[in-house]
Fold each of these.
Amino acid sequence: MHFIPSPNHDARPEGMAVALVLIHAISLPPDRFGGEGITQLFTNTLNPDEHPYYAGIHTLRVSAHYLIRRDGALICFVPPALRAWHAGVSCWQGQARCNDFSIGIELEGCDTLPFEPEQYLALAELLERLAEAFPLRGITGHADVAPGRKTDPGPLFSWRHLRSLLEARQPALARCIEPTGGAEAALPVWPFPLGARP
């Protein structure tokens, strides 16, 4: 794991336990992978002249605890004991301000392309480590805590596949998954057809 410190964090409220993991997806520029845009956004160094999309977001002060690249490489921007600024206006199980009690994991991806097998493996391993350190009660998507405002991790993220990986490692952790829409039958099937892969 590589550590790139983000200034966009602060302390969690006193006595607030980490209970939730939020799965996000991000690509900068949109639908393009492998560049430094995500790192630059989370470290407040995004150049607004580098891409037209950046002009509208370069002043944002956001972060996540972790980023999982397309090849499964893991970057930590904010230690999980601290509060990263990833959820925005959000609510989970009637509790607002999800940043206070959640860990944000960004997957390098978008709504229109499947995620890579290496990303699911890295995510499962990270979730297992986090469950050893924190009393997790839920794993869900950004769209589920900010409905109508966010769509990530998107329709091509396979909650079913993530659940199967976790069941083989930590069955109790697999039961923490709250899939988008709540309908297991609607979850994407893994593996995706070859024609759906980038």
Amino acid sequence: MFREMRRKKQLLAEEKTVDILKSCTSGVLGVIGDDGYPYTVPVSYTYKDGKIYIHSAKQGHKIDSIVKNDKVTFSVIEKDDVIQETFTTHFRSVSIFGRARILTEDSDRRQALESLVEKYSPDYIKEGQLEITKEWNRVCLIEIKIEHMTGKEAIELVNKNN
């Protein structure tokens, strides 16, 4: 169903791909938007137990799009060093295809929010719990179930690591 990566030498191991998802702090969510146009938006996220979690306002373009069609893409760029003299970049990135859903169960919502607090404010867990309570009725949580994931790096990085 999903295309194989053409440049297989540049494919990252799943462990390294997951490390990238855990370490990066922003990604780009892609949905099928209005009139079939792709719509992408930068988001903060967390990765836990093979899923991506994103917080959002309860209304807006991405929420409307997910409700209409749950197929999404998500990408993260860990490294993007421009090498002027060779007209290239030394990059490392992750691309995901998956299905998104709006979380409605309180336990799922709380787990997603706590995961976000743990990632972005690990020194403020107690304060994060208060923030969760304060914003509970205003926040929407999106879960992406990953169906296909690839990590890729520039061939120069592959060759350097071998």
